[in-house]
Write a structure and sequence with these properties.
The protein is α/β, with parallel strands linked by helices. The protein has helices at 16-25, 28-48, 53-62, 97-114, 122-137, 157-169, 182-191, 229-242, 259-262, 266-275, 279-283, 287-294, and strands spanning 147-151, 174-179, 199-202, 215-221, 243-254, 297-303, 308-314. Strands 3-2-1-4-5-7-6 form a seven-stranded mixed sheet, sandwiched between helices. The structure holds S-adenosylmethionine. S-adenosylmethionine binds at residues 83, 94, 107, 152-154, 157-158, 179-181, 184, 204-206, 221-223, 226-227, 231.
Length: 318
């Protein structure tokens, strides 16, 4: 499937349904109640499916992992306004320990939701989610990948999985994980017990400070839906600067054209919108057109699973 005009769910953008949902979310007591109940259901469902949600948090707290934040935090980093808003029902968004301790379990839960009828174990669902992305990426990697960058790496699940996959084709690959949350990066570093990742970098993806033309592959997995389109555009621009000629930008995220996403039950899409502040912007943003306009070529879109798409693009050779 190649780039065509965007098609969004009826619950996103300016449509009547979207406006009703937005009004509902702004009704604070109702939203607070919905949020609390949804969270309880989320944790209970995860634990019933073999994801030790509360135990994982307790383990990170007991190990005092938070004390390691100084190893990754860059005090010079400033946070854009769009980032300092509640996300995923955490008042402090990605900038708090609760979000960081729960991110691993939330990532495993997300993969399980893709194939609800397949009775997959959490790791099997996670592997399937990532390998469907790697599969469509493979034909783009015509040269050995010496340096890869995972933008918005969170607690490092996307980074480590990408690194292991790349190692099979390029054993000497160096992979960097970059995120704006020092809390997430602290957990990522703690999970990387064998120090396989070259660097866990605390930076804003729109101004990384990394040298130009230093990566063969840049991935951005499940990040774009957390960004207003202006920030997404700035990040695509920075990625173009960071890529070597012929290098690949690989984006994975929710697929606005997916029938599953388009027909989400009202309670679910209301909750999704209420916990993803830039969701309307994401679902109405023609990413393929923006990327092509910025200067990438060979822009293609692929349905990778029932909910997600990958958008791939290449930096011109010259
Ligand atoms: C849903 S998580 C991504 C998860 C991870 N890539 C994966 O696939 O499992 C989105 C991440 O993007 C990060 N992020 C959002 N805006 C960013 C920015 N401007 N620069 C760097 N990281 C950003 C957030 O801190 C968060 O950790």
């Amino acid at each position: 499937m190649t780039a065509t005009s965007p098609q969004k769910p009826a619950w996103a953008g300016d449509d009547f349904l979207s406006q009703v949902v937005n009004r509902l979310i702004q009704t604070k007591p109702l939203y607070a109640l919905m949020k609390r109940q949804a969270r309880q259901v989320l944790i209970k469902t995860a634990e019933q499916n073999g994801i030790p949600w509360r135990q994982t948090c307790a383990d990170y707290a007991a190990a005092n992992v938070a004390a390691q934040i100084d190893q990754v935090q860059n005090p010079q980093v400033t946070y854009p306004d769009y980032y300092q808003v509640p996300f995923h029902a955490y008042d402090a968004g990605n900038l708090c320990w609760q979000a960081a301790f729960e991110a691993e379990s939330a990532t495993y839960s997300m993969a399980l939701r893709v194939w609800p009828n397949d009775s997959l174990a959490p790791q099997a669902a996670q592997d399937r989610l990532r390998s469907s992305f790697h599969e469509v990426l493979e034909p783009y990697l015509t040269q050995p990948v010496e340096n890869a960058l995972d933008i918005g790496c969170s607690v490092g699940i996307s980074t480590m999985t990408l690194h292991h996959w790349l190692q099979q084709r390029s054993p000497a690959v160096h992979t960097t994980g970059l995120d704006l949350s020092p809390h997430m990066l602290t957990i990522a570093q703690a999970r990387d017990a064998q120090h396989e990742i070259t660097q866990w970098l605390h930076a804003a993806a729109e101004a990384t400070g990394l040298p130009a033309a230093s990566f063969d592959l840049i991935s951005m997995q499940f990040v774009t839906h957390e960004l207003p389109r202006t920030a997404a555009r700035d990040i695509f621009q920075e990625a173009l600067r960071l890529l070597r000629p012929g290098g690949t930008l690989a984006i994975a995220d929710n697929n606005p054209k997916s029938p599953v996403i388009q027909s989400l039950p009202p309670v679910i899409f209301t909750l999704m919108k209420s916990t993803e502040p830039w969701s309307d912007d994401y679902y109405t943003f023609d990413i393929e057109a923006a990327i092509a306009e910025i200067g990438y070529e060979r822009v293609t879109t692929h349905e990778t699973d029932p909910r997600h798409r990958a958008i791939l693009a290449q930096k011109p050779e010259s």
